[in-house]
Every structure is written in structure tokens, then in C-alpha cells.
Amino acid sequence: MGWVGFDAGSDTRWRWGMVARTPGMWSEIRTDRLLLRRPIDADAPFVLALHSDPQAIAHNPADALRDLADAHARLATWSRHWRQGLGYWIVEETALVRTIGVCGVKAVDLHGRPSWNLLYRFLPVAWGRGYASEAARACIQVAAQVDASRPVVARIRPSNSASSRVAKAVGLVRRPDLDLDGDDGPDEIWSTAPRTGTG
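Now predict its structure.
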């Protein structure tokens, strides 16, 4: 099962289901193998590397970045997401102390329904180790604490079978009735069941 820890300027660690409810708590999340932290300007070179890797963005070429200026602009966009409660975290592999990806949720409206949009994107060197599922589970747990009435949704290109496997592994289910067109073509929607309480 593992644990998720939240850094609020202390070393307190919270078990599953015992999560603090103040959004400022979530500057960092720790899982068994990963550290998820809010992005900073110094992450621009990594964000550029991730979003210029042909394999990492193969299914979402519209997300490609050309230079550091693009990367800083992307970071500014991610920073604005946090004003609505949550956003994306930079993911580090704690054993090797290296940055390997991005994962998180942002507030969106999907067909008029307030939702959390789940993103997970990792460098190919980190694929196949369960990191995307581990990070995504932690993000879903936090999203439920911030606003459990919003379902968590993932928009996945039909050809991206690896991303679909992650969505299924973390408890999302296919919702063909919610499918829509994205910047790179049709998106298949995976979603958690909506919840009405804060637990």
C-alpha cells in the first residue's frame, strides 16, 4: 500500500486516508520511491528536455517545447494552475536523486462538469518501473482531499496503450460518453467515479 507524505515545513508523514486538508500542505508529496514537488524556475531545463524528447511526447506533439523560453512559459502556466487548488509536480526518483517526470492534476471543466485533469509524463529512462502509477495514485489521493466532488479524468490518445494501462492501474475507468477532440486528435476519457464527501 505504501505511504504518502506531505511537507508543510515539518517532517510529518501522513498515511493513506490521513491527509491534511490545507492546499498549502502539498508543496511536496513523498511515496515509497518518489518525491513529487512543486516546480520552480530552475526546472526549466528539465521541462524542456522532457517536452522535446520524441518518445515522451510521441502521442502529444502539440505539447512540444522548442527552447528555454518555451519551458519558462510552460512553468508559468503550471504555476497559474495552483491558484485553483492543485497543479503539476516535478517527480524525482529518490534512490538515485534524479528528476524523471511530471505528474499532477489541474482543475478543469469537462463537458461542463468540474473535474481534475490528471497528467503523467516521464522520460523514457523511467518507463516500465511503475513510477507513473505510483505518482498518479498519490495525486488522485490528494485531489480527493482537496475537492472530492470533482472526478479525476485522464485524456488519452487512442494509440497510447501504455498510458491507458496506467489509468486502469490507478482505478480509472473508460468513459466513451465523455470522449472529445484534443489538440492532437481524438482523446479517450478515463475517469474516477465522482465522490460527494471529503472522507
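The two ends are 18 Å apart (CA to CA).
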